[in-house]
Amino acid sequence: MSRRAYHDPLHGAIVLDRQDPAEALAIDLIETAAFQRLRRIRQLGTAFLTFHGAEGSRFTHSIGVLYLARQALDQLRRDHPGLESHRGVLFAAALLHDIGHGPLSHSGEEMYGLRHEDWSGRLIQEHPPLRDLLEAYAPGTAQAVANLVMRGQYSNRSIKALVSSQLDCDRLDYLLRDSYTTGTSYGRLDLERILAAFIVAPDGSLAIHPKGLSAVEHYLVVRRLMYRTVYNHRLNVVGNWLLERIIALARQRQSGQLWADTVMAHWLWAPEQLGISDFLANDDLRTGYHLQRWHQEAGGGLAELCGRFLERRLLKATDVSQLSNTDQLAVLARARQLAATAGLDPELSCGLRQRRIRGYHPYAGGLRLWDGQRLAALEHHSDLVATLSEPQQMAWVIHPREITGALRKDLKQDRLSAQIPAP
């Protein structure tokens, strides 16, 4: 078969043709075991505990990124045919940008303490089934793709921006896809207008035509909303905290004191020596099975936390974003005290999670408008974009459900007391 069709719920039929060398490379990369593993990695980590439709995989997302990268390149090469020579690197980077994700995607990065970009680069350069395909396409391709996905570095600035920038094909696909799977209707982007607005600036970088300004503003607003209400939903925060504590407790035990297969043993007790085969052997299925076994057999706090996660007996999270760091720690201390009084282990039920959200970084590869005469920073043409550059701090105290009323009553009283001037 010279043509391969992937039927996507967002983009429709994505057809690749082996007669096109870059598309043939994409088909071969998709068929590798390393890429097929992404079917077993949830795109949204623990979000399925909150949004029951959030069961999509990194596999589906990565093919969506490839589709958008091809659409964007087709748009740009009409005026810049020389970009065609970068087609293979672009397609490979679009497909493989998430190849290094561990179990449960970003949740797994927190629980196991790894960085998926580093593993993506390592797999591309060192895993023969991937590296050999890339090098057969053109010598030096593996290194070029690895540098692009791992460090955001590439010789052509426009191609680099399509893979790694504040308006890249990865972000466009995951915002659309994650909104779709979680049922959050405000995630609808004007994708066609955004892609049509891509233009190459005189310095070779990717810019936005002014006709696309409103669509890009909308994209940045959607991104801020998705981070606030989906990616950093309080129950996602609780789920990730539970997983972190589970792995921390598992690592505190000696290898002979806790059941783990050979692969998981390396992930737990020798992560600095983790090899490629053991990395690829861990996914949502293997990690999930270990949580089940530990729930049944490990005993103590580890079994309790595994049960909480598997049975969705989640802890509560109280928003303390408006408090100072000192006051947040005071609320955590009060939660731990209340938990202990209630006969609950504070180490297993209380924590503080802090996040810093910044929807747009004007000084980190910021977007620019090009109208054919003048190249200017996006925030200089949009008050909305300038507003979105302000960072947003979020913080939650995690605590048992049993102390929610008492903790929030104390917190409310403290806030009221703070508003009453001293006599």
From TrEMBL:
It comes from the Bacteria. SUPFAM superfamilies: HD-domain/PDEase-like (SSF109604). One of its GO terms (molecular function) is dGTPase activity. GO terms for biological process: dGTP catabolic process. Residues 58-175 form the HD domain. SMART domains: HDc. This is HD domain-containing protein. It comes from Aphanocapsa feldmannii 277cV.
